[in-house]
Amino acid sequence: MRFDVLTLFPDMFTVVRDLGVTGRAHGQGKWNLQTWNPRDFTSDVHRTVDDRPYGGGPGMVMMAAPLAAAVQAAQARRAADALPTAPVILLSPTGRRFDQPRAHALAASAGALLICGRYEGVDQRFIDRYVDEELSLGDFVLSGGELAALAVVDATVRLLPGVLNDDESAVQDSFNPALSGLLDSPHYTRPEVYDGVAVPAPLLSGHHANIARWRREQSLRLTAERRPDLIELARARGWLTPQDERFLKTLLAGG
Ligand SMILES: C[S@@+](CC[C@H](N)C(=O)[O-])C[C@H]1O[C@@H](n2cnc3c(N)ncnc32)[C@H](O)[C@@H]1O
């Protein structure tokens, strides 16, 4: 799997390439990162990648031509490396919200070309011609697409086979099917009493079924409080057991 990232700030991507879980996996060849700077695809002496917006208004707009040339070069390199043509994804606040199912789908693919916008955004003609999908990190505006692209790369790479060891397994994380798409339960580690607060008793019981039930109920409680939409989704998918439903009823009753 390879991510090709079009960015004016390639150095920002050393974070996922060199550090932590994703850095270790990159070093092991489990995924590959290639950055492409649109400035390397300009023909003027100033290496211009942006210009003023037609119609006036503040800020600058990224020009279509350097981005288009960079996309073509990236796809050509992928073909030369026997990788399939990758979908072109623009990080944009106007895109569809990036989520765990999208990360799973990307992890099962050969990767993607990620386009990082800057300034006021990207000339729409580039988007119409080259972009297959727009992804947003959330309802806020970043200064550039790099932080969003880093999030997409990190969330995807940690799902690749063998990237996380058993202790770090993504299976039990929030949003995953193994958790019925619910939020994760709280975690505790040593000491047993910290600042006068003890670890919840079921976690110390050594009784696996009781521990699993406690974690499930904490997941249900947290999800019902913070993300009732995920409870509805799990219910619609048939992922809630009769025991789960009984517990949710006790929550509604103020239990
Ligand atoms: C300052 S923003 C442009 C915002 C744009 N004028 C708007 O209001 O929708 C510059 C770039 O940051 C990136 N960006 C900003 N917020 C983002 C978000 N929530 N998700 C993904 N990318 C984002 C996009 O690539 C965007 O082109």
TrEMBL record:
The UniProt entry lists the main location of this chain as cytoplasm
Sequence ranges assigned to domain tRNA methyltransferase TRMD/TRM10-type in this UniProt record: 1-232
Q: What is its EC number?
A: 2.1.1.228
A GO cellular component annotation here is: cytosol
Please give the Gene Ontology molecular function terms for this protein. tRNA (guanine(37)-N1)-methyltransferase activity
CDD domains reported in the protein's UniProt record: TrmD-like
Question: Where is the protein found, in the record's own terms?
Answer: Cytoplasm
Q: For binding S-adenosyl-L-methionine, which residues are annotated in this chain's numbering?
A: G117, L137, G138, D139, F140, V141, L142
Q: Which biological process annotations from GO are given for this protein?
A: tRNA N1-guanine methylation
* Catalytic activity, as annotated: guanosine(37) in tRNA + S-adenosyl-L-methionine = N(1)-methylguanosine(37) in tRNA + S-adenosyl-L-homocysteine + H(+)
Q: Which UniProt keywords apply?
A: Cytoplasm, Methyltransferase, S-adenosyl-L-methionine, Transferase, tRNA processing
* Keyword Cytoplasm part of the UniProt annotation: yes
EC top class, in one word? transferase
Q: Which InterPro entries match?
A: Alpha/beta_knot_MTases (IPR029028), tRNA_m1G_MeTrfase_C_sf (IPR023148), tRNA_m1G_MeTrfase_TrmD (IPR002649), tRNA_m1G_MTases_N (IPR029026), tRNA_MeTrfase_TRMD/TRM10 (IPR016009)
Q: Which Pfam families match?
A: tRNA_m1G_MT (PF01746)
Task: Say what the protein does.
Answer: Specifically methylates guanosine-37 in various tRNAs.
Q: Which family does it belong to?
A: Belongs to the RNA methyltransferase TrmD family.
The UniProt subunit note reads as follows:
Homodimer.
User: Entry's NCBIfam families?
Assistant: PRK00026.1 (NF000648), trmD (TIGR00088)
Question: What's the protein here called?
Answer: tRNA (guanine-N(1)-)-methyltransferase
What species does this protein belong to? Bordetella genomosp. 8
